[in-house]
Design a protein that fits this description.
By secondary structure, the chain is mainly β. Helices cover about 5% and strands about 30% of the residues. It has one helix and 17 strands. Strands 2, 4, 5, 7, 11, 14, 15 and 17 form an eight-stranded antiparallel β-sheet that branches. Strands 3-6-16-8-9 form a five-stranded antiparallel β-sheet, with no helix packed on it. The longest helix is centred in the N-terminal third of the chain and has 7 residues. The chain binds magnesium ion (MG).
């Protein structure tokens, strides 16, 4: 039977008028990935809502001196607080007080370890835009090499929401997108609480993080489901799992993801505890 036999003439005219079909929405992510516990979405799900865009106000904290009890991790003078994750000196460049990622040189991490900390860092995405999505200004704050707060140029550059700037990678998009344009200096203030295990190796406290980007809250004491690398290199079944106990004292790692992201003014201070001055 002719499928158009009962189709109104007007519709036939539209169907035959040569109007190009709507382009399918650009595929941003994946759906053949593990389901994220407690959500209707999958890891890197492109249909997850894109965070609302917020234009940050002037961030007067940029280049502000650290508090008196902070450990200065980078003040533009040297990289003595850092090492390559491959061992030895960091292979990133230090020019005019600015630390810059060297593609294919590997991540760098702090020599010291910190439990429950407040971290301040400033970064700038490459002013010259190259690539898109996950390939545009990708770096990250990888706490203990396993809990990533994403650094990405997400200024008018969509990607899967749980991988955009400020996402807890593969787990939770930020509440909002507070990115500045590429080339501009931006700030992250990250308050991290380490996970804890009891003597029997049972997880008794998940890692939790508060993230403020350019003076705007992205996460408020949000718990990690586990290690954030469940999709890249770690079996999918590991998603949502804390793979094995580790001490509360952890390193801060900065990710080399092929893009020349720049850093300055990095400091950290241990939170301590109430009634323990
Ligand atoms: Mg990254």
């Amino acid at each position: 039977m002719n499928p158009f036999a009962r189709t109104p003439l007007a519709l036939l005219l539209v169907l035959s008028s040569g109007v190009a079909p709507l382009r399918a929405q650009e595929k941003l992510g994946y759906t053949d990935t593990p389901a994220i516990p407690g959500t209707p979405w999958h890891v890197h799900d492109g249909s997850r809502p894109q965070p609302r865009v917020v234009t940050p106000g002037a961030t007067f904290s940029l280049l502000a001196p650290p508090p008196s009890d902070a450990v200065v991790l980078f003040d533009g003078r040297d990289l003595s607080q850092w090492e390559s994750i491959h061992g030895g000196e960091p292979k990133w460049t230090l020019t005019d007080g600015i630390l810059e990622v060297v593609p294919f040189s590997g991540n760098i991490r702090t020599k010291q370890r910190f439990a429950d900390f407040q971290l301040h860092l400033e970064y700038a995405e490459p002013a010259v835009i190259k690539g898109k999505g996950q390939y545009r200004g990708n770096s990250g704050v990888l706490i203990n090499g396993m809990y990533e707060v994403q650094i990405l140029d997400s200024y008018e550059s969509p990607t899967y929401p749980d991988g955009q700037s400020g996402a807890l990678y593969g787990q939770m998009p930020p509440l909002v997108n507070a990115c500045k344009p590429p080339g501009e200096w931006q700030s992250y203030d990250i308050i991290f609480e380490s996970p804890r295990w009891d003597a029997a190796g049972v997880l008794v406290k998940k890692a939790a993080v508060t993230v403020i980007q350019n003076g705007v809250v992205l996460h408020h004491r949000h718990e990690f489901f586990g290690s954030t690398d469940g999709i890249n290199g770690v079996p999918h079944k590991a998603l949502g799992a804390y793979l094995k106990p580790h001490p509360p004292e952890v390193v801060v790692e900065l990710q080399e993801h092929r893009n020349p992201v720049r850093f300055r003014n990095i400091w950290i201070r241990t939170l301590g505890d109430y009634d323990h001055p």
